[in-house]
Write a structure and sequence with these properties.
This protein is mainly α and about 200 residues long. The chain has ten helices and no strands. α5 runs parallel beside α9.
Amino acid sequence: MAYLIGAIPFSVLIGKIFYDKDVRKFGSGNAGATNTMRVLGNRAGSIVLLLDIAKGMTAVALTHSFRNILMSEEKIILYQLSLGLFAAIGHIYPIYLRFKGGKGVATLFGVVIAVFPITALFCMLVFLIVFFITRYVSLSSIAASIFFAIRVLFVLDYYSLFINIFSLLLPILIIYTHRTNIRRLIKGKENKFYFEKKEEEKL
């Protein structure tokens, strides 16, 4: 269920229903919030961003299915992270779009909000600082994911090996989905992002 929730392609649905456009055929060709903003405008992109975040939070909420089972706090967190990871995989490899989706940042951020709300605030702060300095969404996402791993490993200091492994998996996954962006960053060809109002905004 977590995978199927994560796989819901809100960017494509909103583009086709309200704008008669497939966002995958424009801009970077990515089915995510950033490309939606570039192609359809800030309003549509913001709605997609919120919905993609909600996918991660909803997947984590499935943990309530285990409410009648006695578990330790760390085991509950482990289940939450597992469900969130499946949601992120669904977003990146959605069955509805022949396994070609977005990069998973917003959905994973929704997972972090649901499981580690204070850490999520710090991650958002790191993202915003890097973004307003560089205007690179990709670099900001990578920086925030690395900060997440550092905070979980060295500040929150969980004893669970699996939680610590997840904290490392998150930046690895983000780096992997941004591998083409990293190549462009190295070559100085990565596109910077600026908020621009699109004339065709309808939502």
